[in-house]
Amino acid sequence: MSGNSKFEAHRCPNGHLSYPGHPRCPECAEPQDETVDLTDRTAEVVTWTTSTATPPGVRQPNHIAIVEFDVDGDSVRAIGQLTTDGVEIGDEVRPIYADELRDPDAGIREKASQEWDGYRFEPVE
Amino acid sequence: MERVAIIGASMTQFGQRDAWIRELLAEAGEACLDDAGVSPLDLDHLYVSNMASGEFEGQTGVPNALAHDLGALPAYTQRIDQTSSSGGAGIYAAWQSVASGASDLTLLVGGEKMTHETTAEATDVIASLTHPVEYKHGLTLPSFAGLTARRYLHEYDAPRESLAKVAVKNHRNGVDNPHAQFRKEVDVETVMESPIVADPLRLYDFCPITDGSAALLFCPESEAKQYTDEYTVVSGIGGATDTHVVHERDDPTVMGAAVESSELAYNMAEREPEDIDVAELHDMFTILEFLQSEAVGFFEQGEGWKAVEEGVTDRDGDLPINTSGGLKSKGHPLGASGVAQAYELHQQLLGNAGKRQVDAEVALACNVGGFGNCVITTIMEQA
Ligand SMILES: [Zn+2]
């Protein structure tokens, strides 16, 4: 399933955004009917951690952040690996594609059940 | 609606055990029936709280196995999985079975066998509860704790040492718990110098991986006296669910499902946070004790850390929290933990807690699944 991952927020008719998408909007339960591409936008770091006790197939250490995108005045958050350490709360980052975020053959989850590529976050200079 | 009584309780030694899941469940189940002096043949329902016996051990169908091993046939059985709040969810199910009149005698046994796996493998079994967009980035429950702790310290100007003091307090309490996995005191320096696991959290901010089980026996309050004079009452219980995807919560420092489940429990019990004399909170990570103590209304948002600094939650403080040692020192066999919280409160309310005894008539347990994804709050009282 490599190379297929989109990085999109999903929007319902009432304007609520979520990432990832859901069959029904988590806020108002209407079906989501629109997507917003996040790959060319920048986001602000809400919080971060460096995980040193990682599961099978995950890089060690694993730098991770929750980030917040501004989409036309509305905010939507995402989570993902950082390309580097030394990132702080409030820093600006941008998505960078990675074709394999962890080894799909090493963990407990069935390889075919989900995607393994996606977007890391890189500090904007 | 008639209240539900707890007429028997037990827990096994927590820690690294040679026993497998079937033996662990039978050990707590037998001890609980013996505690109440009840025959397994009299059970109407038998519930097992367990997250992952299939994934950990390749043994499924554990309620059926336990019913046969205990001699409880033909009692109705079911397994309750709500990840690490399976124990609290089991209390909810057992309460429902008795309160509805479907069962006059329900035995609940919670247990997990984990330590035969490496830490990395066990962490991955638990991380399998995450959403695919989390799992592919290698998110683990400890990494959610690191993310949340950093945000909490940032937002409320709490010192890193305040988290260490949760570990120090709960280890101190665990010294006097004969069933606890760790019975040794630690100091703030030891916690602060232990290896980083999920920055800013260190090894001593995390509960260990544990084998063990615990059990409770339930009947209608009106029938409790025919079994025993020593019983407690479930006066309120509530359960609630938060987002599956952790970053989709409005405020990462608020455990919404703990807020909502505790409101339900307080309403049912006709109690308020001020009425609680002792509590067991789900301190899988030190930060979770702050978040829950605020979510269930003991302290204002962002103030939970001050209570720990000021000794309010110490065993001799105004509101003792985790007199058992908590998950932190007692250990965290997933399906057993919520049941073991109620075991501790049962002993406290009956005056049977030995050196851990505090003065308590009303008690609260908060059991958390995932990273606050599912929460059960239970209020227990003296009969
Ligand atoms: Zn909506």
UniProtKB/TrEMBL annotation, chain A:
Domain ChsH2 C-terminal OB-fold: 40-94
Membrane-spanning ranges: none
Top-rank taxon: Archaea
Annotated spans, Disordered: 105-125
InterPro entries reported in the protein's UniProt record: ChsH2_C, NA-bd_OB-fold, Thioester_dehydratase-like
Protein's UniProt name: ChsH2 C-terminal OB-fold domain-containing protein
Lineage: Archaea, Methanobacteriati, Methanobacteriota, Stenosarchaea group, Halobacteria
Automatic annotation (TrEMBL), chain B:
Domain of life: Archaea
Gene Ontology molecular function: acyltransferase activity, transferring groups other than amino-acyl groups
CDD domains for the chain: SCP-x_thiolase
Keywords of this entry: Acyltransferase, Isoprene biosynthesis, Transferase
GO biological process terms, semicolon-separated: isoprenoid biosynthetic process
Domain Thiolase C-terminal span(s) in chain numbering: 238-381
Gene3D superfamilies linked to this entry: 3.40.47.10
Domain Thiolase N-terminal as annotated: residue spans: 4-222
Stored Pfam families: Thiolase_C_1, Thiolase_N
Protein name as catalogued: Acetyl-CoA C-acetyltransferase
Organism lineage: Archaea, Methanobacteriati, Methanobacteriota, Stenosarchaea group, Halobacteria
